[in-house]
Amino acid sequence: MSEVLKTIERRSSTRGYTAEKLTPAELDALITAGLQAPTATNRQELHFTVLPGDAPVLFDIQSAMGGRARPEKNFWYDAPTVIVISGEAGFRWTAVDAGIAVENIALAAEDLGLGNVILGCLKAAMDGNATGNFARTLDFPEGYTFQIAIAVGRKSAEKEPHTYDREKQVTVL
Ligand SMILES: Cc1cc2nc3c(=O)[nH]c(=O)nc-3n(C[C@H](O)[C@H](O)[C@H](O)COP(=O)(O)O)c2cc1C
Structural domains in the chain? Predict the structure, then answer.
């Protein structure tokens, strides 16, 4: 099996991290993987905001999530790095492109032996932030909105990849 297929097979969501920070080279590899993701018509309408796990804005977003937050853990599971992807709100493929970019980052993280978890749970808090405070703090370009985020760090918790029902989900005609 190719290295890419092995990485896809191994990837799973990590919900526990050590405090150890990513190295600059690791961070650079993750961001590069995001930038190398394809976008519809090569529009490149995504923006990547890199945050340390102790950034005050993460705690502010957590507070804005209210009842949607898990009471026992913060939404980024104390990961040392969170990458927030914003995108051009009016472009019809932005959400798809952001999904592809975040998976590129997830697979790059897996390949580097780093844990990661894709984070959508902050969406309502981000969308409901009428004054745009979070968008400003996170340096979203004008007209960009939250799409998806990902937490990355060294694993302190393990989880097996999810199982699936091929019969139910696949038709081969
Ligand atoms: C769009 C999207 C949003 C997600 N949001 C969250 C989230 O907010 N919090 C979380 O713990 N996991 C989140 N996940 C991770 C999924 O729960 C996880 O991928 C799924 O349970 C399958 O498990 P696996 O990733 O370990 O294979 C998200 C995944 C996707 C694709």
Answer: 3-169 (3.40.109.10)
For ligand 1, what atom is nearest to the CA of residue 77? 11
Q: How far apart are CA 107 and CA 37, in angstroms?
A: 11
8 A C-beta contact, residue 154 and residue 112: no
Ligand 1 atom index nearest CA of 121: 8
Tens digits of per-residue pLDDT, 87-111? Answer: 999 999 999 999 999 999 999 999 9
Distance CA 45, CA 68 (A): 28
Strand, helix or coil for residue 3: helix
Any atom of ligand 1 within 6 Å of the Cβ of 143: no
For residues 76 and 55, what is the distance between their CA atoms, to the nearest angstrom? 11
Burial class (CB in 10 A: 0-12, 13-18, 19+), 124: middle
Which protein residue has the closest C-alpha to ligand 1 atom 17?
13
User: Ligand 1: distance of its center to the CA of 150 in Å?
Assistant: 10
> Which segments of the chain have a pLDDT < 50?
none
